[in-house]
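thread: overnight batch results

M.L. [08:02]
morning all. the overnight job finished for the chain we discussed friday. pasting input first so we're all looking at the same thing
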Amino acid sequence: MLPAVWPGDLLTVQRVVYNEIAAGDIVLVLRDHRFCIHRLVGWQQGREGLLSVTRGDAMPQDDPPAAASEVLGRVASIRRGNRSFVPSRRVSTLHSTLAWMLCRCSRFRSLALHIHGAYSQAVSLSPATQADLEKTVIAALQRCATQNQVHPRISSSLSRTLSRTSHL
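M.L. [08:03]
and the structure it wrote out:
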């Protein structure tokens, strides 16, 4: 569910009935005897009753519809490192851009996961070391944005975002 949920995140799932879940919520679905965390795209009526349509943020297409009874709950909070937050139903332009890049560019996905792993390990470091790591991450992302392998619109969007964070 990148970029909304990353490896190592702790999710709190709240049991709710299907009519309390709206499009944009991140939900836990039991699919083929496996748990899946994806964003709810919407509901549709099927022959067997109400069906949920979900999709991972970095996935190119919707999942097959699942029965409303297979939606086990909604992600109420995400704990990442030492902070917790409530996931938003609205997906920002930056979030959509990152999801598009993670879906279509395996090099970018590998780089993002590698940086996330390194950053997660560095959480317990001193503030000065954390600042150095953040500068290294921003420099790596800027190099990635300037490569010709990234779509020009994505590259310019990423560059604008990085220029706003370059004060680190």
